[in-house]
Amino acid sequence: MARNSRIILGLNSGTSADGVDAVACEITGRGLTMRVRVLGHVRSPYARELQERLLRIMAPAATRTEELCRLETEAGRAFADAAAAAVKKIGLKHLDLIGSHGQTICHLPPSGGKARSAAATLQLGDPAIIAARLRVPVVARFRQADMAEGGQGAPLVPWTDYVLFGHRKKNRVVQNIGGIANLTWLPAGGDVEDVTGFDTGPGNMVIDALVRHFTRGRRHFDRGGRQAARGRPDARVLKGLLNHPFLTREPPRSCGREEFGESWVRRVLKRNATRRLSAEDWLATATMFTAVSITLAYISFLGPRRGGYPPMDEIILCGGGERNPTLVRRLAECVSFNGRFDSVPISTTADYGIPTEAKEGVSFAMLAAACADRVPANLPQVTGARRRVVLGQISNPEPYP
To answer: Per DSSP, what are the bridge partners of residue 24?
Structure first.
């Protein structure tokens, strides 16, 4: 182990709410000089009953306060179990710190005007339970400090993307495709103040919702994009989807189930019932929707002018969508549609030593280290916050002397 290194476990569960990713990292250095080595990654699926309860409670939804309270504890136990399982499976002899993002239930970023006072976010998974179980300090509630300063509280990873993937000569996009898709734009040779990041729109969320709808809950995602590959995108439905107001909203911006969740998908299905599309055609259309919305974000907000094309040298993919060949192929087709992007290589974080499914866990391990070091890790130009702040709150397992 390197001198002055720390072993930190990053915990995360995405908007799909299918389980907890626990990623053990050896971290050396501090702030922008931080260096990371992944020691191991363990995925712990939620128990089916817990997953179903979490999905039912996610906004927009109505629920009892008692259920919300119980889920905070039960999600905390699930995260603690996942952390303990990772420690055992990876064979960690020592653990310095844990960074836990928790399970996002509702995210209401500021939207301007009177709505700014209603900005709020909620992630379940009591960090005190994790700290008590592992006897290790836990950093959690990463979004709140940024939102207290008027920011979106998301995306959180552009600072870590800069540390991990910033390059002196290459313009890079780090493209995460989770339930929601988000990007980090890293201009060649740029400083951290030059980084851009925002949610592009849906990633797997709409695709997953359609799979659950057509299988009556028996399946939760299109494995390998196989169903979408057998279908044909419907141009009329796709055009309607692309009229969603979020896609033209200026950054800073973030989104979630509130914009693209199950209730929105049900409205879309009802509105287009006369199209009589097969399940395969619906999934092909949703897959194309994700790919086109990502590409529109590149064109609209990364180029030197609106409607221009950013000088991209590399797209680095991560998140569950990277394992969907149909989605990746559609994205490649979209970014090369005019012949300008056809030479841009599409790689993954795995090509740089970070498994794509572990990328978010690595980021929360890094953010936990930054919190412990009192290093501000939000980027106001990304989130819209008034100033740089330290992200996260620490739960200690031991009482003060």
So the answer is: 9, 40
pLDDT in tens, 204-227: 999 999 999 999 988 989 999 999
Residues in Cβ contact with 191 at an 8 Å cutoff, skipping those fewer than 6 apart: none
Phi, psi of 400 (to 5 degrees): -70, 145
Identify the H or E element spanning 371.
helix 359-372
| Residues ≥6 apart with Cβ < 8 Å to 354 | 36, 38, 164, 318, 362
pLDDT given at position 144: 95
CA distances from 210 to 214, 220, 234, 327, 369 (A): 6, 9, 15, 15, 38
**CA-to-CA dists, residue 5 to 34, 161, 360, 400, angstroms:** 10, 20, 20, 25
Q: Is residue 353 part of a domain?
A: no
Asked whether the whole model's pTM tops 0.85, one would answer yes
Q: Prior bond to 155 cis, omega within 30?
A: yes
Which domain covers residue 268, as residue numbers?
168-344
Q: Would you say residue 211 lies in a domain?
A: yes
Q: Which helix (H) or strand (E) holds 20?
A: strand 19-28
